[in-house]
Amino acid sequence: MRLSSIEIAKRMAGAGALALAAFAAVPAFAQEAAETAAEAAAPVMDKGDVAWMMTSTLLVLFMTLPGLALFYGGLVRAKNALSVLMQCTMIAAVVMVVWVLWGYSFAFGGGTSPFWGGFGKLFLSGVTMDSTAATFTDGVVIPEYVFICFQMTFAVITPALIVGAFAERIKFSAVVLFTVLWVTFVYFPVAHMVWDGSGYLFNLGALDFAGGTVVHINAGIAALVGCMIVGKRSGYGKDILAPHSMTLTMVGGSILWVGWFGFNAGSNLEATGGAALAMINTFTATAGAIIGWSVIEALHRGKASMLGAVSGLVAGLVAVTPACGSVGPVGAIVLGAIASAVCYFFVAVVKNKFGYDDTLDVFGIHGVGGIVGALGTGIFTAPWLGGTGADDFSIASQLWVQFVAVLVTVAWCGVVSAILYKLVDAIVGLRPEKEAETQGLDLTSHGEAAYHYS
Length: 454
Prior knowledge:
This protein is mainly α. Helix content is 69%, strand content 2%. The protein contains 15 helices and three strands. The protein has a three-stranded mixed sheet. The longest helix has 37 residues, at 5-41. The protein starts with a helix and ends in an 8-residue tail after the last helix.
């Protein structure tokens, strides 16, 4: 069929229009593709993760107040019970303020130094409701405020642990001043070295899932140095200095165990299988440690005590802290039992042999247990021992890295802590008068008593 010139012109015009429409659609398709790619690359925030991390943060705070306060409060004599509770309470408040003003920046300020985080986030500069913090899964984030609060509770409990070493014989003003200085020059740098992406020990490959070096070795070494510099309690080795309430200590220890699930499982930063692994290990390691300590004590002293059981409880929790995210549940049982045995030896034998007065065995349990846990992580992470290590995991190589991390923490904390104790002693003094110690710090330091007997 022959087309007229008009019909040909109409069809050509229609084809041109279709071509133009097709070309016009190209930018639109490209824009849609770009938007899809951007959506795919955008960080993901899961409400379940956020809720879990907020809960974990409260659990870690619960460890300090009232957990640690009651645990320590029951272990001292009645005349000093409130002084320990007050020290834990004030340390929590002071460290929270310090953390917001400069602590978070010094630990996680975004700097590239391997030893500290810099000034980039002083006073939480640049942090908003919309800013986020990374997790262990690429592209998954949580609100930065939640991460700040979670890490803050770790900074709170660490110096609170230290005061148990020189309980019943320390000035309240000395505790406050030392806490501010110690978190600034010891805790924040070590936290940066171990947990920040630019940290020295982090890049060395050290494994510390929830704070074996940062919290427990740090606190334990500072405690040992402190009890030696402050000196022994009046009447140590002569008078009866027994705990006034094992009931309070058991309650406080139980609260610590419950709160520790936030400490360990929360360190996964997500509500995933990693948190579940840390959770079950926090059960099994502690159980193994309680049994281990009680058996050893029964064989050594003829009876298994409540004080021994709760000491084993804490020793197991301490040891599994660095390992909970990378060892298997059975390996955790063994690790907890080993930690109990080593800690028992230091508490029952080494302390008496060398004569230092670590009042509440902070070094013997947290320091020694933290070292056992850190080194044990390098062993029990091996896949053939039930751990999560890769097929090419080398116990020897990882154990060396763990040893270096322990050595760096011990050296830095030991030297700087000694300097800070001497500085505090020169400024406000470390010990109260002997008469004040004899009367009890509750009345002489705080003007009140824990108990009123009719």
